[in-house]
Amino acid sequence: NAGVTQTPKFQVLKTGQSMTLQCAQDMNHNSMYWYRQDPGMGLRLIYYSASEGTTDKGEVPNGYNVSRLNKREFSLRLESAAPSQTSVYFCASSVTQGARNSPLHFGNGTRLTVT
Amino acid sequence: EDQVTQSPEALRLQEGESSSLNCSYTVSGLRGLFWYRQDPGKGPEFLFTLYSAGEEKEKERLKATLTKKESFLHITAPKPEDSATYLCAAHNQAGTALIFGKGTTLSVSS
Predict the structure, then answer these.
(1) What is the C-alpha separation between A22 and A47, in angstroms, rounded?
(2) Chain A residues within 8 angstroms (CB to CB) of chain B
(3) What is the pLDDT of residues B21-76, one digit of tens each?
């Protein structure tokens, strides 16, 4: 039981390049999330998917797109990377968004540097 | 605006020296207050959820409490392995997302 798996663990991009961050969970959770974590800023929500087939913007969605590929997988795409997107990206999942006894479970992150 | 504030930013303790971390929140219709532990290079690990004022939860040397404005994470007789960043987060009435504080980095030396 791996929980939430993110790939890659590290990535360096040049400004303007694109890439997709992958996330998969094996806990049969309905809801999935993408957060970014920056020094002094805390964790901020980029996008979330309350259930398979739905996605919604979070606090900081600009410059990102997401795809809920199936119940297990939720990807985050940077179409044209910018230095401001240098960050650590965390994927998380929960049984059901907003429900009691449904905490978020996080992956170990993708460390992205944009030069 | 919903907000979660943690203090102090950093805390250094000697092994066995008990202390508390604070999380104050201004959230409309709190639906849950969460504590997470984050080790360097890792994702946050869930510790506790508290739902109503007066509620307490314990796990080993950690005890979390909740009032109408704050939550405390009490650490009793800490050990070096308790060194980590502790994150507090709140679910507001809309329940769409967790609102995270910036964390308290705890260092426990032997």
Answers:
(1) 14
(2) 4, 33, 40-45, 48, 56, 58-59, 90, 92, 97-101, 103-109
(3) 999 999 888 889 999 999 999 999 999 999 999 999 999 999 999 999 999 999 99
| H helix intervals, chain B | none
| A44/B32 touch (CB, cutoff 8 Å), yes or no | no
pLDDT class for B93, splitting at 50, 70, 90?
confident
d(CA B71, CA A35): 23
> Side chain identity at A21, as an amino acid letter?
L
Bridge partners of A10, per DSSP, are: A111
How far is the alpha carbon of A80 from chain B, nearest alpha carbon, in Å?
26
Distance in Å, alpha carbon of A18 to nearest chain B alpha carbon: 24
Preceding peptide of A8 cis, ω within 30°: yes
Range A8-31 average pLDDT: 97
How many helices (H) does chain A have, and how many strands (E)?
A: 0, 11
Residues of B in contact with A108 (CB under 8 A): 41-43
Return d(Cα A3, Cα B21) in angstroms, integer: 28
Dihedrals phi, psi of B82, to nearest 5 degrees: -85, -5
Confidence (pLDDT) at B98: 87
Model pLDDT for residues A60-104, shown as the tens digit of each residue: 999 999 999 999 999 999 999 999 999 999 999 999 877 777 889
